[in-house]
Amino acid sequence: MLVGFFLLLILRDADSMGTFCSYQDVLNYLDLTRANELFSMTRPVKNHTKPTVVYLELALYAILDVKEIDQTFVPYVWISLSWMNDYISWDPNEFCGINHVTLPADVLWKPDLTIIEMIEKDSAPQSPHLNIDSDGLVKVKNDQVLVSTCRMHIYKFPFDVQTCSITFKSVVHPVSEIQLVNKPVSVELNQWTQEAMRTQYEWLFMSMTVRSEVDEITKQDKIIYTIKMKRRSVLYIINFLLPVLFFLCLDLASFLISDTGGEKLSFKVTVMLAVTVMQLILNDILPSTSNRVPLIAIYYIGVFSLMLLSLLETIVVMYLLEKDSTSQDQNTDTSSECRLSEDEDEEDNLGMCDPFVEKKQ
């Protein structure tokens, strides 16, 4: 009983000394409330000449879509931002070892970063919270579905390798106010991306690099992430390259068909129509703004040209055979008319049928 009484006295003395052991105590100490909008209005620096250094890190989680005809790239990424706030700090020893708190994202100022290549608004919900460390470091993590532009080089389609960029920059702040610092992309991060990739559509992630530069026109800091990926070409080989090759083989095998009937001509026309349909399907996949004609288009044009020559050869041969057959029929009719009947004069018939008789006369 005596020990319990002393413990009760110790706890009461601790409460009377004002021990702060809750997150709310930290917020009250920092005066971080929704009513206090001073923390979210301006850059959190005590000297306006001091730039806010924003640390940026991007991780690729999935490649959702790559549209060649629209030249758009749709990745699913994780973006991590961190910066220092000069007006926020506390001693964890005074608050029972609390070294970080979580706040709503709209309470504090955040850097106005944008992605240059983005053409559609992000459909993924933004993170509603941010973390604050005791030294004033503010950290925000968001996952985003980006619909960005990407210039496609399809000359080697479907064996092509594409590189798409994601560029971060401030909307209004120059480099003297906001400096972007990228964390280098390590081999471990690339390996983690390949392992964490949940879906890659028809593309295989190869590597990701990062570099920073200053825009000479706007004087703003930029961080450029370049994603390199390779197309999975197996389905295109099966669905496009091999069928056209098979059609060419069928067209060559049609030379064994007899030229006397019309089956050979109709067969060749049918094969050409099949290749034309496949070429139209391919035209719906490839962008029309390419500077160079893709190799697969040259392949289709070459096969189509060979089939056209084969069709023309068949038409010419059939025309010559028809002409030769008509000439033979005329000779047959003439020889049948020159046959001598039993009651006809042999001399008259000889002069009529023998071309040399008329010349002698």
Characterize the structure shown.
The chain is of the alpha+beta class and 361 residues long. The chain has two domains: 17-232, Acetylcholine Binding Protein, Chain: A; 235-333, Methane Monooxygenase Hydroxylase, Chain G, domain 1 (Up-down Bundle), CATH 1.20.58. It is 38% helix and 25% strand. The protein has helices at residues 2-16, 23-30, 38-41, 187-196, 234-253, 263-285, 295-337, 346-353, 355-360; strands spanning 52-67, 72-84, 100-104, 113-115, 129-133, 137-145, 148-149, 161-170, 178-182, 203-214, 221-231. It is found in: Postsynaptic cell membrane. It catalyses: Ca(2+)(in) = Ca(2+)(out); Na(+)(in) = Na(+)(out); K(+)(in) = K(+)(out). Keywords: Cell membrane, Disulfide bond, Glycoprotein, Ion channel, Ion transport, Ligand-gated ion channel, Membrane, Postsynaptic cell membrane, Receptor, Signal, Synapse, Transmembrane, Transmembrane helix, Transport.
